[in-house]
Amino acid sequence: xxxxxxxxxxxxxxxxxxxxxxxxxxxxxxxxxxxxxxxxxxxxxxxxxxxxxxxxxxxxxxxxxxxxxxxxxxxxxxxxxxxxxxxxxxxxxxxxxxxxxxx
Length: 103
Fold this sequence. Notes:
36% helix, four-stranded mixed sheet
């Protein structure tokens, strides 16, 4: 594996995030900004008092988890512990923690 391959993270957008990015250019620009923050360790607007966000965070304890607000809604990001994959999704697209490994 080359050094470049070691430092590459694949970013996957959920259907909802993809559709929003295609319809809203400002949102697409916002995504690039929050990806930089996320990779820098900024958890953004992650609220561990919110049960849904707490469940997401705890189910992904060895992964990077963050949340950011865009207009009226939140965007969640989860990056694998080996930094190989990042998933960007809307809270309504969240699957139960028992099957979160399929992300």
